[in-house]
Structures are given as C-alpha cells and as structure tokens.
Amino acid sequence: MSRSPIKLIIDEDSLYESWKAGLCEIDFQSWCNENAGLCDCSLNNINIGTVRSGREISGKPEWNVTVTNNCRCAQSQIKLSCMGFQTVESVDPSIFVKNGDTCLLINGNSLEASASVHFSYAWDPPFLFLPVGSVCCYEKERLLSHVIGLKKMRLVD
After folding, report:
1. What angle do CA 31, 36, 40 make, to 5 degrees?
2. Using one digit for the tens of pLDDT, what is the confidence trace for 12-53?
3. How much is the pTM?
4. Rounded CA separation 13/136 (Å)
5. Which of 62, 97, 129, 147 has a beta carbon 3.0–4.6 Å from 53's, enabling a disulfide?
C-alpha cells in the first residue's frame, strides 16, 4: 500500500521558527548544491589571516589562523591548499582536517556570511594557506524564503 505525500502549506516565518525549534528538518545541503549559481561568491571572498600568537610549542612558534567568509552568502565545503603543511600542535579535527594536499574546514559545513573560523598550529616557517574550493549557498534565513524549492522536509514526532 503506497502513501500519498502530505502537502503542507506553511508560511516562511512559521517554517523558520519550527526549524529553529527542531520540529522539522530541512535538507539545506541538497538545496545549496542544486542552487549554487544563485550566489555570486568566489574564492576571493574567503580571506585567510595568519598571526603569530607569541607562544612556542615544542620549540616552534604558534600561529593563529582566521578564515573569514566575506561573501553575502554562506559557503560550505571550504578547502584550503595544504601541500607541505606540518604542525607539532594538534588541530581540532572538527575545524581543520588535512587530506592529501588539501584541508577541509569545519567538516564541510557552512561558514555563514561574514562569519569566521579559527585554528592554531605550530611550525616554522608559517604556512601560506590559500582557498582552493568551496560551494556557495544562500544564508539559511534567505533559503527559507524559497520554500517551494525544498527537496526534503519531514515533521518530527
């Protein structure tokens, strides 16, 4: 026996509040991937700053890195060039993971518009990180105004 899909008619504010309260799930990543062209972000919108912290770890200077998304839209799957990157200080893997010659930020999750992520490492000389890839997506609040384009939404019991 097949079930007919339930049609929901809901205004955007109610949907947003329900999502924030955890009452419904919205597949933002699928929407982002399908509608990536709606944003005009580029790798030039990802700024990376590195400053010396003043500390030393195992005889190596520590460096604080800030990656900022200066686009008006969120960007996910942010990858940095990491060929030759080394550190004697462990970096939180939920923020920064080296995989071959690239490094993935925040497990590929979205870095919202104007937001930053920070990590530290210790090595000499400092490493020059450059953005090499990202997926651009509307901010989640803007995305909710495109309710018709959502692929998945399910109510939580």
Report:
1. 140
2. 455 556 555 555 555 555 555 555 555 678 899 999 999 999
3. 0.67
4. 24
5. 62
Residue of 147, 136, 137 whose CA lies nearest to 42: 136
Which residue from 65, 61, 67 is spatially nearest to 115, judged by alpha carbons? 67
Domain boundaries, given as residue ranges, for the chain? 8-35+138-157, 38-137
Contact of 103 with 131, CB cutoff 8 Å: no
Q: Please name the residues in contact with 44: beta carbons below 8 A apart, sequence gap of 6 or more.
A: none
Q: Can you name the CATH fold of 38-137?
A: Immunoglobulin-like (2.60.40)
Structure token pair of residue 72? 């008006």
Length of the chain: 157
